[in-house]
From TrEMBL:
<dbReference type="InterPro" id="IPR013650">
    <property type="entry name" value="ATP-grasp_succ-CoA_synth-type"/>
</dbReference>
<keyword id="KW-0067">ATP-binding</keyword>
<keyword id="KW-0547">Nucleotide-binding</keyword>
<keyword id="KW-0816">Tricarboxylic acid cycle</keyword>
<dbReference type="InterPro" id="IPR016102">
    <property type="entry name" value="Succinyl-CoA_synth-like"/>
</dbReference>
<feature type="domain" description="ATP-grasp">
    <location>
        <begin position="10"/>
        <end position="240"/>
    </location>
</feature>
<dbReference type="GO" id="GO:0005524">
    <property type="term" value="F:ATP binding"/>
</dbReference>
<protein>
    <submittedName>
        <fullName>Succinyl-CoA synthetase subunit beta</fullName>
    </submittedName>
</protein>
<dbReference type="InterPro" id="IPR011761">
    <property type="entry name" value="ATP-grasp"/>
</dbReference>
<dbReference type="InterPro" id="IPR005809">
    <property type="entry name" value="Succ_CoA_ligase-like_bsu"/>
</dbReference>
<dbReference type="GO" id="GO:0006099">
    <property type="term" value="P:tricarboxylic acid cycle"/>
</dbReference>
<dbReference type="Pfam" id="PF08442">
    <property type="entry name" value="ATP-grasp_2"/>
</dbReference>
<dbReference type="GO" id="GO:0046872">
    <property type="term" value="F:metal ion binding"/>
</dbReference>
<keyword id="KW-0436">Ligase</keyword>
<dbReference type="GO" id="GO:0004775">
    <property type="term" value="F:succinate-CoA ligase (ADP-forming) activity"/>
</dbReference>
<dbReference type="GO" id="GO:0042709">
    <property type="term" value="C:succinate-CoA ligase complex"/>
</dbReference>
<dbReference type="GO" id="GO:0005829">
    <property type="term" value="C:cytosol"/>
</dbReference>
């Protein structure tokens, strides 16, 4: 999913007429001071990262003066939360809280619903996971007509909102429901949704995720990569997205996983499908190897698409091996994979990575033919001193054998490392 940071989501909420605190993002303590001066009075300084629980992580601070705001920002900007460095903060007017509520719209994919679902609770502020089930009130919203005021009132009354506040809340929820649909959101969570001491309602936090498939309909968002990435896209992310964006025939997913390019033990990772990907990680974890990237070529992609993914995986500069991890009896035609892999290995191994360990596991539909394509297509490289001397090809007999595959890769990659070091590389 394409996710927005809090300040971005709030800007889109404001454009849709929703009440949000007055504020602006900033990168440095000096900038924070200026924003705080512009706001006037006490402010909240909030670290902007794609992670919940920021309050608990100490990157939401409430202060009284611009100088304190700058100081708080300096502390927040020095932090890393859940592996993500805080590079930006949102400075906004401090809200005087009377009560915090929880409110979100998500997609309810259950057969009987298949619609957006509103969740509301009077227990706002904390993670929804820690709110008792009986305190969360849910309503499936009609996807054609949206949330009606009477349904919102009904839900809010059940949740325990006082009668005299019902119309004010219902009004906002119906507006929020329209916003959710207008932006093609997958998730729109406002937690806390605040009633101020003055009696106004305001969206104090915002988690907005856009349905990846709808990103093309929203050029205004300027989303470059319609994917759920943990941070700023890397070169590999752009390459991966370019493969997917230009060819809808099957999945050709490729994404960065924090490969540092200098440490040993990284394997160019090419699983086929989500279940395979988990088993492949098991294979690597068991022997202390690491995936350089994440990938997935499933859903019967064409050979040209698999070729582009495999080539990008193999081109990563300092990998100690390549794993084609077909840990599933795939019912896609596996010979597309076989053709693609033969072409890539023939291009890469002789000139760029002679001797690179390549463990190729391919099972399922057209397995015999596929393995034959690999064997004959790579035979001349696989001689004792050939550039493909560490290619190993396996089929269904090893389909769930993560231990075996991990151990083969470990052994081969150690040999390869030692050989490279002996050559002073
Ligand atoms: P999260 O922990 O990542 O969900 O970050 P939130 O934006 O939800 O902030 C966490 C908590 O900080 C909220 O539940 C509020 O209790 C508190 N908080 C955030 N902004 C303000 C504010 O402007 N005024 C006050 N008084 N509290 C705030
Ligand atoms: Mn929150």
């Amino acid at each position: 999913m394409a996710r927005f940071l809090e300040y971005q989501g709030k800007a889109w909420l404001a454009k849709a007429g929703m009440p949000v605190p007055k504020g602006r993002p900033a990168f440095t303590p000096e900038e924070v001071k200026e924003v705080a001066e512009w706001i006037g009075g006490p402010v909240a300084v909030k670290g902007q990262v794609q992670a919940g629980g920021r309050g608990k992580a100490g990157i939401v601070k409430l202060v009284n003066t611009p100088e304190e705001a700058a100081q708080a920002a300096a502390e927040i900007l020095a932090k890393t939360v859940k592996g993500l460095p805080v590079q930006q903060v949102l400075v906004e007017e401090k809200i005087n809280i009377k009560k915090e509520f929880y409110c979100s719209f998500v997609v309810n994919g259950a057969r009987e619903a298949r619609s957006p679902m509103l969740m509301f609770s009077t227990e706002g502020g904390m993670d929804i996971e820690s709110v008792p089930e009986e305190k969360i009130f849910k309503f499936n919203v009609d996807p054609l007509f949206g949330l009606q005021t009477y349904d919102a009132v009904d839900l809010l009354a059940k949740a325990g909102v006082p009668a005299k506040e019902l119309s004010k809340f219902a009004n906002l929820l119906t507006k929020l429901s329209k916003t959710y649909q207008k932006y093609d959101c997958q998730t729109l969570e406002i937690n806390p949704f605040i009633m101020t001491a003055e009696g106004d309602l305001i969206c104090a936090d915002c988690k907005m995720e856009i349905d990846n498939s709808a990103v093309g309909r929203h050029p205004e968002f300027e989303i470059e990569i319609a994917r759920d990435l943990p941070g700023v896209p890397t070169e590999l992310d752009y390459i991966g997205w370019s493969i997917e964006e230009t060819d809808a025939r099957g999945t050709g997913f490729l994404m960065n996983m924090g490969y540092d390019e200098v440490s040993p033990g990284y394997i160019g990772y090419h699983p086929i499908g989500g279940g395979s990907a988990m088993m492949g990680l098991d294979a690597l974890n068991q022997v202390g190897l690491k995936p350089a990237n994440y990938a997935d070529t499933s859903g019967n992609p064409v050979a040209s698409k698999i070729y582009r993914v495999a080539k990008s995986v193999l081109a990563q500069p300092n990998i100690d091996g390549y794993l084609l991890g077909g840990f599933m009896m795939a019912n896609q035609e596996q010979w597309h994979h076989a053709h693609a892999i033969v072409k890539v290995l023939r291009e890469i191994l002789p000139t760029q990575k002679p001797g690179l360990p390549c463990v190729l596991l391919l099972c399922g539909n057209r397995e015999d033919e596929s393995l034959e394509i690999l064997r004959t297509g790579l035979a001349d490289l696989m001689t004792v001193n050939g550039p493909g001397r560490r290619i190993e090809i396996y089929g269904k007999e090893h389909v769930t054998d993560t231990k075996f595959v991990g151990e083969r890769l470990l052994l081969l990659s150690k040999e390869y490392r030692a050989e490279k070091e002996a050559q002073g590389k």
